[in-house]
Task: structure prediction
Amino acid sequence: MSKPFRSIDTGVREGRANIAFDAALIEARQNGDVTDTIRFLRFPPTALIGRHQDLSREVDLDYCQQHGIGTVRRITGGGAIYLDEGQLGWELVFHRSSLGIAALPDLAREICNAAALGLNKLGVEAKFRPRNDIEVDGRKISGTGGFYDGDVLIYQGTVLVDLNPQRMVSALHVPDAKLAKRQLDSAAQRVVTLKELLGSDLPDLETIKAALIEGFSEGLGLQAHPGEITEIEEQLARQYFDEEIGSDEFVAEIDDPAADADVLAGSHTGAGGTIDAFVKLEGRRRDVLQRVLISGDFFVTPPRVVFDLEASLMGVKRTEVDDAIDKFFARTEVGTLSVSPADFRASIASALGTDASHG
Result:
C-alpha cells in the first residue's frame, strides 16, 4: 500500500528563510500539524554551509558581500554548496515509520536511487554514488543529506538545472585535496547541469518536479498529492528565523577557530568526509582538554550529537581521549553516513600530535 505524501513548492525564498522553513516543517510534522511532505524550494544567490562547517574556511566572505551572495548555515550536515535560481531544491520530511527503513545510510541510498530514477525520466543516466551524491558519468548533478530529529527525518537534495560555475568557484573555498582526489582542475569540472546534458531539450521546472515525484513514488512506494503551505509552518518559520537561523551569530557559530594562537588544529578525512578538530589545553602540563570544537562536512544524526561530544571531552586528560570518545558513542544513539568513532579519534589525535588508537 502506497504512503500518502503532501507535495508543496515554497518558491524562491531568501536563504536563511528557506532553512528556517526546514526547521518549521520538521516541528510541524513532529506535532502532527502536517502530513509527510515533499517540498520543492529555490534560493537566490547563496553560499550554503553545513551545520558543522567553519564559515571562513568554506566561503569567500568578501566575494559574497561584494556580489550580493547570501551566507547561510544549514541545519543538516555535509559540505558547502553554492545555490541560485538555477538549482531546484527538493526534500522529504516524514515520520520514521513511513518508509519502513530505519538506518540513515539505508535511507540515503533508497532516496537517492529514487531521485536518480526521476532524473532518468528526463533522459539522463543518473546514478547514486555513496555516500550521498547523484552523478551522471562521474559528475555530480545532485548532492544530498539529512538527519533524524526524534521520529522525523528530513532528507534533502538539489538538482543542478543551470549554474554559473565561475560564481560557484569564486564564492566557495574548495579544498585542493578534494579536487585532486578526483583529478579535477576546478570545482566546476566536478559538477554537471541538466542544461549541459539536455541542451535545447531542457524541460521546464514543472516537468522536472513531476519527474522527481514520479521517481520518489516508484522508488519509495509513496503517493504524492498537491497540498497547501499552512499558516502554522509560516509562523514557526518566522520564529526560527528571528530566534536563531536568520541571525549572523548562527551563521558564524563556527568561524575560524584556529585563529586563536593557543588552539591546536588537526584534521582527518575518511569515508564519511573530513573532520576537523580544534583543541585548547589547560593544566600545568597542558595535558587536559579545556575546550574542543569539531567541524567538517560529515553527517551525524541528530546534529546536536556533535555538541554533546564536544561537551563530554571538556576536562578529559589527553591520554584518556580515545576511551572517552568510545564511551560517548557506546552510550549515545547516533546515526551516521560512513563516519565512525575512529574518525573522530583520528581527528583529535591529529590536533594533539598523537597517534589514534584503532578499533
Q: What stands out?
A: Residues 104-120 form the longest helix (17 residues). The radius of gyration is 20 Å.
